[in-house]
Amino acid sequence: MRKSSSAFFAAILATGSLAPNISHASGALPRAWASAQFGADSASCGALTSPCKTFQYMHDAIVAVGGAILVRDPGAYGPVVIKNALSIVNANVGDASVSVSSGDAIAVQAPTTASILIKGLVIDGGGTATNGVNATGFGNIAIQDCTVMGFKGNGLAIVPQAGPGLFAVAETLVRDNGTGVLVQGNIANAQNMNYVQPTGTLTRVKANANGVGVLATSLAYVEIDQVDATANATTGLSVTNNGFIYLTKSTAVGNPTGVKVSGGFASTYGDNSFIRNGVNISGSLTAIAHN
Length: 291
Description:
The protein is mainly β. 6% of the residues lie in helices and 51% in strands.
C-alpha cells in the first residue's frame, strides 16, 4: 500500500477492459451502445444509431470479452451478472440505473485474469435487495462515480474467492445499506498459505447512513483516502479479523463509533478527523509517515 491511492486507481484503470488489446469473439463488438429508452435487444444492436436495451443481453450476446458497454441515454438497464472482462461506462449522459428488489444488482463472477470497470451508475436496492455490487471473481476491479443505495447486505461487496483481488473505488456514494463497503479476504485455507488477500483503495468515497460505513476483514488491505463516513448506525470505519486499513485525510462524524479496530490493524498518517462520534476511536491506531 505504498503507492498513492490516485496512482493505484490509475494503475487499475490502465489494466482495465478499455485497453486496446481486446480479445474478440467471432462477430462480437469491442464496444457497443446501450439505450434503455430507445434500444432493442437483437443480434444486430450495438451501433450508436441502433443501441441495445439491457446490460445482460449485451454482456451475453453482443460485446466481446474485454469490451465495453457505453451508455447512450438515461434509463433503467436491469441487473447484470458479469462473467468476463468488461467495462460498463456512463460518461455523464444522466442517471443510468440498475434497480432490483431482491438479490444482487451487479454480480461479478469473472476469471481471476479479468479486468472490470463500472462507471457512472446509480445502483438501487429499494431497501429489500441484498448487494449492489457483489464482486466474488475478478483480477482487478474499478468502481467510479457511482451511487449505491438501499441494500440490506452491502452496497459494495469486494469479496474475491481466488486470484489477486485488486480493487479501486473512487468518487462514489454508498448510503442506506447494511454495510456501505465490505472488503473481505478468503482465509479458508490460510493454514496452507492458500488465501486471498484483496488489496486496494477507497478514494473520495462517501459512506453515509449505512449500518457500518466501511468494513475491512479477513486479511483485506485497504487504503482509506479522503473517505467520509458520516451518520452510520453503528460504526463509520471498521477493521476486524486480521484486516488492515491505512487512514489518510478521512473523516468519521456522527457515528456511535467513529473508527473501530477489533482483531485487525489500523494505521494512520495523522491527517484524519474523527469527531462528534459517541466514541471517536475504539481500539488502537498506529501512526505512520507518508513515504
